Amino acid sequence: MLNEKNIQIIKSTVPVLEVHGTAITKRFYERMFTQHPELLHIFNHANQKQGRQQTALANAVYAAAVHIDNLAEILPVVKQIGHKHRSLGIKPEHYPIVGENLLAAIKEVLGDAATDEILGAWAEAYGVIADAFIGIEAEMYEQSREQVGGWADFRPFIVEKKVQESDVITSFYLVPQDGQALATFEPGQYISVKLEIPGERYTHIRQYSLSDAPGRPYYRISVKREEANAEKPAGIVSTYLHEGIREGDVLQLSAPAGDFTLEQSEAPVVLISGGVGLTPMFSMLASLAEKQQRPVTFIHAAQNGQKHALRAEVERLAKDNPQISAYWCYSEPTEQDREAGAFHKEGYLDAEWLEQVAPEKNASYYFCGPVPFMSAVKKALTERGISAERMHYEFFGPAASL
Predict the structure, then answer these.
(1) What is the pLDDT of residues 261-304, one digit of tens each?
(2) Which amino acid positions bind FAD, per UniProt (predicted)?
(3) Number of other CB atoms surrounding residue 377 within 10 Å
């Protein structure tokens, strides 16, 4: 445990971290990858280029400083990050590398303001925080390895089937190459896919939500091909999965991970998704259809019918289960969509429409999609008086702020 003096020193750095946190983490990653390029086999390069990873780490360091005298306050965040670390293959030996480069980055960015006393306090604090991560992740590795059908690290899976779900989303049905048992998972969890892509210097690892219910003889992921736009280039991994991977190919997968899962409750459930954010939502929906009779409202926003994946599967579940209702919101419907009456709302989700299709104040609300979409959903739910405790959401990639 930290002594009181070092706790106060750490807390005194909170205002500095609020201003310089992202500069520190940016320099941290530059230093670490220069000295340990082998770690580029683990980290998501796209998130680095877009600055998302730097911002997420800066926020985590800031939260640790704020709560340094009561780290239990950030235990949910530690566990959330721990799931990602276990899924990626982060090990105890990586933590000293992180600590050394983080302290050096603090010194470089803050200069003379980073006194020996401050650096000493942060070195001790980092040790405490790292031990917390290592302990939690050790439990996660053990649980992953010891469960029925479980494994540690990565395991080869065969692409049994590849199905185009829309113009931009394709599903991959994955079965263990060894033919052995398949670990179960909680609806909403994800797996990591590790790829050696021809022409790429480093291994690429990406995390994809499982897009079907547990208990199947396969895992399914439904991947959006990330097109190039003014803000970012085309997705290297999603493009390779769509264009380079064929049925019969072998992919390396980590065991399921993640804490974005259904809570045990009898309350109605509202599942709201945008774009490929429907993948964990469909897993939850399919599981609820099989196991529970809770009222479920499924709301999906897409550009139009050509971009709308898994629609037929959702509508089949709604037809077969009277407690399930489904609604579609298209921002740019095609003429074919209009002629077929293929959607319930044109434009974007708003509080008024959500009130009409999901009026339950006591429901549990789960939502996932692009960050602007989730921000809009959270705003709309807040306007309706839905409490924060009833809202559950997950970011694709590093955590951000809504």
Answers:
(1) 998 888 999 999 999 999 999 999 999 999 867 999 999 999 99
(2) 190, 206-209, 395-398
(3) 27
Assessment of whether the complete model's pTM goes beyond 0.85? yes
Question: Is the CB of residue 304 less than 8 Å from the CB of residue 332?
Answer: yes
219 is an annotated ligand-binding site residue: no
User: Contacts for 370-374 with beta carbons within 8 Å, 24 or more apart?
Assistant: 370/274, 370/275, 370/277, 371/395, 371/400, 371/402, 373/274, 373/275, 373/277, 373/301, 373/349, 374/274, 374/277, 374/402
Contacts of residue 245, Cβ cutoff 8 Å, sequence gap at least 6: 159, 162, 172, 251
Give the pLDDT confidence of 151-184 residue by residue, as tens digits.
989 999 999 999 999 999 999 999 999 999 999 9
**Which pair of structure tokens corresponds to residue 378?**
């959270």
Alpha-carbon distance 204 to 48, whole Å? 13
Pick from 299, 307, 345: which is nearest to 325 by CA?
299
| CA distances in angstroms from 123 to 2, 126, 127, listed in the order given | 11, 5, 6
CA 352/CA 344 separation, integer angstroms: 13
Supply 21's token pair.
């946190």
Residue pair 367/375 in contact (Cβ under 8 Å)? The answer is no
Is 206 marked as binding a ligand? yes
- Whether the CB-CB separation of 318 and 334 falls below 8 Å is answered with no
pLDDT, average across residues 350-357? 94
For 36, the token pair is 């340990």
User: Which amino acid belongs to residue 46?
Assistant: A
| Measured distance CA(352)–CA(381) in Å, rounded | 10
* Structural domains in the chain, sorted by start: 4-146 (1.10.490.10), 154-254 (2.40.30.10), 269-394 (3.40.50.80)
Instruction: Give DSSP secondary structure letters for 22-75.
Output: HHHHHHHHHHHHHH-GGGGGTS-HHHHHHTHHHHHHHHHHHHHHHTTT-GGGGH
Residues belonging to the active site: 95, 137
Say if residue 37 carries a ligand binding annotation.
no
